[in-house]
Amino acid sequence: MNQSRRSLICAALAATALPAAPAPASSYLRAVAFDGIALFDPRPVEAIARETLGDRTAAFMALWRTRQFEYTWLRTVMNRYADFAQVTAESLLFAEKTFGVTLGDHMRDRLVRAFFDLRAWPDVKPVLEELRRLGHATAIMSNFTETMLKNAIRNSGIEGLVDATLSTDRVQVFKPAARAYATTPAALSLPRERICFVAFAGWDVSGAKAFGHPVYWANRLGAMNEELGLQADFIAKDLTALPGFVQAWTAKV
């Protein structure tokens, strides 16, 4: 996405935000909240697209993903919420027309339905088990629908390791609007500064930091930081260092 356009959309979303609360230096962490894609691997969606698009897949997926998230932000700003499944289908159709290909109804349906059949990245279950051993509550705070999240939890065999499953459907606004992030403190009955948020995307880092969470960035794809004046508290290529980060943050008290 064009950087100036992304910054403009994020600035507009800020107008819908709750007041940010920077974490006090004496805060300690009691819980960890995860973005959906920080936990669940979306690469099978691209594998399905490759069956039809071949070597054009990467370009097509980049276009689709960009429009997919632009639509979530635009729908939030316009106050015209539709769930992530609908946004995914509409952005796919836009990408298809823009790219000049015809996928057909069957392939289109397979691509959208793939988001209902995701599974965890390999590092997820051991990290969730360690967080549970350390006594930290866990939550998922995601743009994904509730059904997408529940399916992914079941598919991944991590039932019992997630205390709260929170879709933006609950508040009818997408991240990075603060009303979306606010569902986690409400669900866990904890202040925002005592919940570490684990982001997958740079824009989600910015949104969670603006809201007042300490942020761990699981930067699995090696993305650049957004130029929005906000930085993650810790950046890693996966979740392996997360339990140590949580413990170290708590030890600062």
Number of helices: 12
Strand portion: 5-15%
**Number of individual domains:** 2
Mean pLDDT figure: 91
> CATH topology of the largest domain, what is it called?
Rossmann fold
Write down the CATH class of the largest domain.
Alpha Beta
Largest sheet: spatial strand order: 5-4-1-6-7-8
In whole angstroms, the N-to-C terminal distance is: 40 Å
What level of helicity do the residues show?
40-55%
Could you give a short account of the major beta sheet?
6 strands, parallel
Structural class: alpha/beta
* Fourth-level CATH superfamily of the largest domain: HAD superfamily/HAD-like
Return Rg in Å.
18 Å
Shape: globular
Low-confidence stretches: 13-26
> Helix and strand succession?
HEHEHHHHEHEHEHHEHEEH
How many DSSP-defined strands? Answer: 8
What CATH architecture label of the largest domain applies? 3-Layer(aba) Sandwich
Please describe the structure with a list of short key phrases separated by commas or semicolons:
6-stranded parallel sheet, 253 residues, two-stranded antiparallel sheet, DNA polymerase, domain 1, alpha/beta, Rossmann fold, 8 strands
Give a quick rundown of the structure:
The chain is α/β, with parallel strands linked by helices and 253 residues long.
